[in-house]
Amino acid sequence: EAQVTQNPRYLITVTGKKLTVTCSQNMNHEYMSWYRQDPGLGLRQIYYSMNVEVTDKGDVPEGYKVSRKEKRNFPLILESPSPNQTSLYFCASSPGQNYGYTFGSGTRLTVV
Amino acid sequence: ILNVEQSPQSLHVQEGDSTNFTCSFPSSNFYALHWYRWETAKSPEALFVMTLNGDEKKKGRISATLNTKEGYSYLYIKGSQPEDSATYLCAFAGNQFYFGTGTSLTVIP
Fold first, then answer.
1. Which chain B residues contact residue A101 at CB under 8 A?
2. What distance, in Å, lies between the first and last C-alpha atoms of chain A?
C-alpha cells in the first residue's frame, strides 16, 4: 500500500531532551515536507526537500533540523525541544508541485 | 510569508444544500493550487491540483475552478451530505508551498 509512515503517533517529552520523528514513504516521491498544525494557524511548513541531500527552510524552521540521506526517509529532529514546539506534526510527500501531497498520520508532540 | 486566505472560516449547511467556498492567493509566482479535504482525526487528502488559468476539476459532487489572473479558486459541493463534513484546505504552490487555514464545513442531516 502506498503510504507515508510517521512515528511515533504520540510523544510526551521534557524540555531539552533531543528527539527524532521519523518519516518514510514507499512511493519513490522526490518531494518531502514537514508541517506543524496549531489552532487558528493552519498548516505551516517547517522544512522541505526536493531531492536527496537537498533541504530548504520553510516558514517556521527555528528549533528544527532535517536530513534527506535517502529518498524514502525524511526525519525531523528537535535538538532541544521547548514547550512552544508542542504541536501536531505532519510529514508529506509528493512526486512534485503539480501533484497532491500524501500525508502521514501525524505525530502529536507535547513538550513539558 | 505569503497570504493564502480562505472564506468563510466555517459553514453549516443542511443536507442536500449546495455550497461553495473561496481560496484567495497571490497572482504572482503561481505554479499550482491544491485543494485538500481533512476529516477530524485523519490526515488531509488531496482533492484537486490545478495549474492553468480557467482550469475546472470535478470529482463526484465536488468541483473546483481556478482564476490565476485575479488570484482565487472556488470549491463547490453539490447536494451536500453529512459525510462531506470536514475542513477543506487550499494550498498555493509557488516558490514555496503555503496552506490556507481552511473552511470547516458541517452538513446537518
1. 34, 36, 44, 46
2. 36
Cβ-based contacts of B9 with chain A (< 8 Å): none
Q: Are B93 and B33 in contact, with CB atoms under 8 Å apart?
A: yes
Q: Is the pLDDT of residue B8 over 70?
A: yes
Summarize pLDDT for B65-87 with one digit per residue, the tens: 999 999 999 999 999 999 999 99
Q: Which residue of chain B comes nearest to A94, CA vs CA?
A: B46
Non-local (6+) Cβ contacts of A82 within 8 A are A15, A16, A63, A111
Comparing C-alpha atoms, which of A21, A12, A32 is closest to residue A77? A21
Q: Which of A9-13, B12-16, B24-28, B93-97 has the lowest mean pLDDT?
A: B93-97
- How are beta strands A65-66 and A76-78 bridged, if at all? antiparallel
Nearest to B31 among A45, A90, A97 (CB): A97
Angle among Cα B10, B16, B18 to the nearest 5 degrees reads: 55
Res. A15 pLDDT band, cuts 50 70 90: very high
Q: What confidence category does residue B97 fall into, taking pLDDT thresholds of 50, 70 and 90?
A: confident
Calpha distance B83→B67 (Å, rounded): 28
Task: State the Cα–Cα distance between residues A101 and A30, nearest whole angstrom.
Answer: 11
* B17 to chain A, closest Cα gap in Å: 27
Minimum Cα–Cα distance from B35: chain A residue: A100
For residue B62, give the C-alpha cell: 465536488
